[in-house]
Design brief:
Elements (H helix, E strand, L loop, with lengths): L1 E8 L15 E4 L2 E4 L2 E4 L6 H9 L4 E3 L4 H11 L3 E7 L8 H9 L6 E3 L7 H15 L4 H10 L4 E6 L4 H5 L5 H9 L3 E7 L2 E8 L2 H17 L3 H5 L3 E7 L3 H14 L4 E7 L2 H7 L4 E7 L3
Parallel strand pairs: 1-2, 1-6, 6-7, 11-12
Antiparallel strand pairs: 3-4, 3-5, 8-9, 8-13, 9-10, 11-13
């Protein structure tokens, strides 16, 4: 029997292709209701199909995975593994974590649900941390304790290309969206500890990228100074349907912050994409295990 399995959901950005490089990692597909029908990311919903539906005014709602599906995965894994470390998306963005924690009580000592307060590439980095800690001989309880202790040691800044989808989701008023569109405002959002909040407003992509890099630099020089000096920080980029723009931003980021590794340039998880739409660009800094 193998020791510990790591479970994440597709909000981590971990894809089926990624799993070829990771042993002992398993992914729960996140469901979406689209025009009244249920779809699952990476099963019957591709990134391409998702954006086609989103841009053609489909009615899209995110949903929690069925707890029955999650428990069935746990049951199957516990036939092969002694313990499971399950790292769902941030509890500040979904009830998924709380639901899993409640059901994990029936598996005391075998299933450990982590409130990691991360999403997208920062959650993917936590998954890699869990694997490193397993290799170091840590128990599932010790991995959970570490990931929760360091859960706030990350920052995400997201430039939104259009206000349309924030308006549709009720995150801004129609009047604010109309004014922002008229003035061609590019809002920058932030996620600190899982909550999506406003950070800044600029008038074009160039200024938005500069603003986000300045914000990440400040975090590295203040909140994360000690971690950076110990080599415990990594950068990442996430994007929605704008790969070329993301790769150009990655080049700029490497030039401006050469002393911190840029680990991932990945598509943003669809559960956030449906709220911010295509053309969004995010930069993250997260503390990692060395």
């Amino acid at each position: 029997m193998r020791k510990i399995a790591v479970v994440v959901d597709t909000n981590s950005g971990v894809t089926k292709k990624d799993l070829e490089a990771y042993s002992d990692v398993y992914v729960v597909p996140m469901p979406f209701m689209i025009n009244g029908e249920e779809y699952f990311e990476e099963i019957n919903l591709t990134q391409k199909d998702f954006y086609n539906l989103l841009e053609n005014e489909a009615e899209i709602f995110t949903s929690q995975p069925s707890i029955g599906q999650v428990v069935e995965l746990w049951e199957n894994l516990l036939k092969k593994y002694e313990q499971i470390v399950h790292i769902p998306m941030s509890s500040a963005l979904s009830k998924t974590c709380e639901t899993a924690q409640n059901f994990a009580k029936d598996y005391e000592g075998r299933v450990f649900v982590v409130d990691n307060k991360r999403i997208s590439v920062t959650l993917k980095q936590s998954m890699e941390d869990a694997l490193k800690l397993i290799d170091k001989g840590n128990s599932a309880q010790e991995i959970k304790d570490y990931l929760e202790k360091t859960s706030l040691d990350s920052s995400i800044y997201i430039m939104v290309d259009t206000l349309k989808y924030l308006k549709r989701g009720g995150r801004i008023t129609p009047a604010a969206a109309a004014i922002g569109t008229l003035l061609k405002i590019k809002p920058i959002l932030q996620i600190q500890g899982g909550k999506l909040d406003s950070f800044a407003k600029v008038i074009n992509d160039k200024l938005a990228r500069a603003k986000m890099i300045t914000a990440i630099k400040k975090d590295l020089e203040t909140r994360f100074k000690d971690f950076k000096e110990r080599g415990e920080m990594e950068l990442a980029i996430a994007y929605t349907k704008c790969q070329e723009k993301a790769e150009a931003f990655a080049k700029q980021l490497r030039e401006e912050i050469p002393d911190v590794e840029l680990k991932f340039v990945d598509p943003l998880s669809l559960s956030i994409s449906c709220h911010i739409g295509p053309g969004a660009l995010a930069v993250t800094a997260a503390r990692v295990v060395r």
